[in-house]
Design goal:
By secondary structure, the protein is of the alpha+beta class. It has one domain: Neuraminidase. It contains four helices and 22 strands. Strands 2-3-4-5-9 form a five-stranded mixed β-sheet, with no helix packed on it. Strands 11, 12, 13, 14 and 15 form a five-stranded antiparallel β-sheet that branches. The radius of gyration is 19 Å and the shape is globular.
C-alpha cells in the first residue's frame, strides 16, 4: 500500500493560523474534516477486507509524520481513541487521529524539559513520560499550544537499565518499564522488565521480571532482544513489545510466559512505538531513517 503523502493537510492547521484569515481558516478546517472522514471510511473498508484475509500482515494505512516528529518515539491511546505521541529530545506531546493520520493538537510540558524521552502511557487522566535513565514525568493534557505542569519522579534505576518504553497495566496498577540495555553482565542475554506500583512515591513497590532471550526467540535467530516500546493488549492483558534493532514483535503474559514471537512486517527500519486499540488495530511508529517518520496500522490478530 502506498504511503499517504498529503503533507499539506497534515500541516493545514498550522498554515491556517499563519494566514490569519477567518474565511481561509474555516475553509481549510472544513477541508481537513472532509479528508479525515474520507480516510476513516477507507480504513473501515480495509479492516473488513483484512478480517476476511488470512494471509500475512498487510498495512491498513500508513501515515507520514511532519518533520517536527521525525524522532517520534512512544505511543499511547486516549479514552477517545486518539493517539498521544512525543518527541525524543523535548517534552512535547502530539495528539493524532490514528484513523486519518492528522495531528489534532500539540502541547508541551512546562519549560519544556529537555532529555532523552523514550516512552509514554496513560493511567486514567494521568499521563506518564519516561526518560532513558528512568526519570518519570507525570502530567495531564493541556490545550492546543498550551503548557502542562508536571511532577517528576526518579526511579533510581538509571545505573541498572537504559529504559525505552512504558505501559500502564490497569489490572495491577503497575507501570511496566522494559530495559533496552541492562548494565549487569550476567543479564546480557535476558530481557528485563521493571514494574513500579502507582501512586509514585516512597511507598511504591518495585519488582523485576527477567526472561531468557532464547525462550522468547522461538524459531527466530535473535541472539538479543532490545525492547523499544511496550503496550498492553486491552483484550487479553498480555504485554506486547517491539524491538527496533531486531525488528521483532513479542507477546508475553504478565507472568512472563511466551505467547508468540515473530518478525515485524517489512518496512519497519526503526520501530520506536506501539499501541493496540480496543477494536483490534495494531499501531507502530517508526522514526525517520531513509524516509520520513510514519505511523503504520495493521489488523491485530489475537
Amino acid at each position: 500500500m502506498g504511503r499517504a503523502r498529503n503533507l499539506s493537510l497534515l500541516f493545514a492547521l498550522g498554515l491556517v493560523t499563519a494566514a490569519g484569515c477567518r474565511n481561509d481558516r474555516d475553509a481549510m478546517a472544513a477541508q481537513l474534516q472532509e479528508v479525515q472522514a474520507t480516510r476513516q471510511k477507507q480504513l473501515e473498508s480495509r479492516l473488513s477486507a483484512a478480517d476476511s484475509n488470512s494471509g500475512r500482515a498487510v498495512p491498513l494505512a500508513q501515515w507520514i509524520m511532519p518533520a517536527e516528529l521525525r524522532e517520534i518515539s512512544g505511543l499511547t491511546l486516549l479514552a477517545n481513541g486518539h493517539l498521544l505521541a512525543h518527541d525524543d529530545e523535548i517534552g512535547r506531546i502530539y495528539e493524532i487521529d490514528p484513523k486519518s493520520g492528522i495531528i489534532l493538537r500539540r502541547f508541551a510540558l512546562t519549560g519544556p524539559p529537555h532529555g532523552d524521552f523514550e516512552g509514554i502511557t496513560t493511567a486514567g487522566q494521568d499521563i506518564y513520560l519516561i526518560q532513558s535513565h528512568g526519570v518519570l514525568f507525570k502530567f495531564r493534557q493541556a490545550e492546543d499550544g498550551g503548557d502542562a505542569p508536571y511532577e517528576r519522579y526518579d526511579t533510581r534505576l538509571g545505573k541498572q537499565c537504559e529504559f525505552e518504553g512504558v505501559a500502564y497495566d490497569a489490572d495491577s496498577s503497575w507501570l511496566i518499564l522494559p530495559c533496552k540495555k541492562v548494565a549487569a553482565k550476567d543479564l546480557k542475554h535476558e530481557v528485563v522488565i521493571f514494574r513500579v506500583s502507582l501512586p509514585l512515591g516512597p511507598a511504591s513497590q518495585l519488582t523485576m521480571l527477567t526472561l531468557r532471550v532464547a525462550d522468547l526467540a522461538g524459531s527466530n535467530a535473535w541472539k538479543n532482544l532490545s525492547p523499544s516500546d511496550i503496550t498492553i493488549d486491552p483484550a487479553t492483558g498480555n504485554y506486547v513489545f517491539v524491538a527496533a534493532q531486531e525488528k521483532a514483535l513479542v507477546v508475553i503474559t504478565p507472568a512472563g510466559a511466551l505467547v508468540r514471537s515473530e518478525p515485524l512486517p517489512p518496512g519497519h527500519d526503526q520501530a520506536e512505538g506501539i499501541a493496540i486499540t480496543p477494536d483490534g488495530i495494531l499501531i507502530v511508529s517508526d522514526e525517520a531513517t531513509k524516509g520520513p517518520a510514519d505511523i503504520t496500522l495493521y489488523r491485530w490478530r489475537r
